[in-house]
Structure formats: C-alpha cells, structure tokens
Request: fold
Amino acid sequence: MDVVRYKPGEAIRWLEVGAEDLRKSARSRSRRVVASAGRRDFTTDLKDAAGALFGFGKSAWADILHKQAEASEFALYDDKFEVIRPSTKRTVRYSDVVAMKLKSEKLSVQLRSGSISIRPHAYVVSGRIKVPIGWTRNEIEVPYETLLNELSARCGVNIETL
Reply:
C-alpha cells in the first residue's frame, strides 16, 4: 500500500498573505513616524513607533506559524505512522497506540510510552463559528476529522470524546 500523506490544507497560505499585509501596514506606519518626527509631540511619536514595531512583530509571528505549518505532516504507512514537524520526526507503530481522546479539536494519542497531540494548525472564523482548517491528503483537500478517523481505523482504537 502507498504512503498516505496529510499536510495542512491550502487555507494555511492565508497566514502568509496575512503576514505580508501586516508587514505592509507596519512599513507604512513606520514611514509616517519618520516623516512626522519632531512635528508632533513626543508621546504621539512614541505611540506610533511602538505600533509599527508591534506590527512588524505580528507579521514575523505569522511568518513563523506559516513556515511551521508547511513543514509539518503526517505520513501513514501499513504498520506505522510518522509525525513530521519542523524540528522532529517521530515514528509510531499502530500497535503501540493504547487510546485516543478527543477534547474540542485536540486529539491526544496515548502510546505505551508517552503521547502525541494532534491539533489544527489554524481556524477559519466567521462570527461565532470557528472551523479547523483541514488537510491535504495526497494532494486532495479533506476535512480536519479525516486524519483522526483514518488513524483511529488503522490503529484499531476508538476515539473517546471528552
């Protein structure tokens, strides 16, 4: 059987777009601060400079989250699965999975030694509705729950909802 790869869905690219927008906004704000320096009072200049720095920080954070999500994936094989994250790669045999517990959208996979958490990389929020971003399963968009259900089936362990 071929390897099944789950990567964060295409919607994760919105983090990159958001980071670029934040960067542009912070850049224009910092230009305004420099252009009007000394013409206004010190407090206003200080607030604008702090706001520009905060904007640059938010854009850098969004970039980090985007790169981290792009470098993450789950690879499912016949007898094991791999959790691949930017700094680590962990291989787990399906037979080592003892229990699976789902609380909200976070799945806790209990192993014979240790545990692994699977949670959404981001959410789409509209008003009071919050939906986790799904996965790309071998280049096809699928809902977030698909990975959890397939992992449960391969391990032969039911997901306990808390």
Remarks:
- Residues 10-70 form one domain.
